[in-house]
């Protein structure tokens, strides 16, 4: 094989879109024209419905946050876009879904290097609060727990606070002979029976 052919093959491999191996839906970010976020969301949802792609493009989101605005001495709560100019999509990335989203009116590009979309990491998704995964949590304040992972692994303590929004608990652990409150993720705990 000549050097030119090898370089051409490498270029093709590097420019290829991620495949849908495993059919795992991930969160991706799409950049839009300013002010077109809701229109892009509606257009993508309509295309998904018309083409029967509900199993490939699962969710389209324009995250909003409440802000208190004061005008003429009156306070009111208004919703503003958390990420203006961006739309979030939970989808299985393949050539068809990439084409549908990328060619939706108002979409300028996927977030990622070149034309290769990069999915959000699980930590980014959790920090943004966009994926509402239900978690079976059967702990209560006052329960005895053992820390299963992390720097406090194998420590035991009592739950003092539960924050369902952040999916964390505050556990009093004995550190250096003192009761110390430590904030831990739900997934790090095991109930002591």
Note down, in words, how this protein is organized.
This protein is an alpha+beta fold. The protein is built from 4 helices and 11 strands, in the order αβαββββαβαβββββ. The chain has helices at 3-15, 37-51, 95-102, 122-128; strands spanning 26-32, 57-61, 64-71, 74-81, 86-91, 107-110, 144-147, 156-163, 168-175, 178-185, 189-191. The strands form 3 sheets. A 5-stranded antiparallel β-sheet has the order 10-9-8-7-11, with no helix packed on it. A 4-stranded antiparallel β-sheet has the order 2-5-1-6, covered by helices on one side. A hairpin with a 2-residue loop joins β3 (64-71) and β4. Residues 1-22 have low confidence and may be disordered.
Properties at a glance:
193 residues, alpha+beta, 5-stranded antiparallel sheet, 11 strands, 22% helix, extended
List the helices and strands and how they pair.
Blueprint (H helix, E strand, L loop, with lengths): L2 H13 L10 E7 L4 H15 L5 E5 L2 E8 L2 E8 L4 E6 L3 H8 L4 E4 L11 H7 L15 E4 L8 E8 L4 E8 L2 E8 L3 E3 L2
């Amino acid at each position: 094989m000549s050097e030119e052919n090898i370089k051409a093959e490498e270029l093709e491999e590097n420019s290829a879109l991620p495949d849908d191996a495993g059919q795992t839906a991930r969160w991706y970010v799409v950049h839009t024209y300013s002010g077109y976020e809701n229109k892009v969301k509606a257009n993508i949802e309509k295309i998904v419905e018309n083409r029967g792609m509900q199993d490939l493009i699962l969710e389209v989101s324009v995250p909003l946050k409440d802000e208190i605005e004061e005008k003429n001495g009156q306070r009111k709560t208004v919703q503003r876009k958390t990420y203006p100019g961006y739309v979030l999509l939970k989808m299985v990335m393949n050539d068809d879904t990439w084409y549908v989203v990328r060619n939706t009116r108002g979409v300028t590009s996927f977030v990622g290097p070149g034309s290769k979309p990069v999915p959000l990491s699980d930590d980014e998704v959790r920090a943004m609060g966009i994926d509402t995964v239900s978690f079976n949590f059967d702990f209560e304040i006052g329960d005895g727990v053992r820390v299963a992972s992390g720097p406090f692994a194998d420590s035991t303590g009592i739950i003092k606070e539960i924050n369902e929004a952040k999916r964390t608990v505050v556990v009093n652990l004995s550190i250096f002979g003192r009761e110390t409150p430590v904030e831990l993720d739900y997934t790090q705990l095991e109930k002591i029976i």
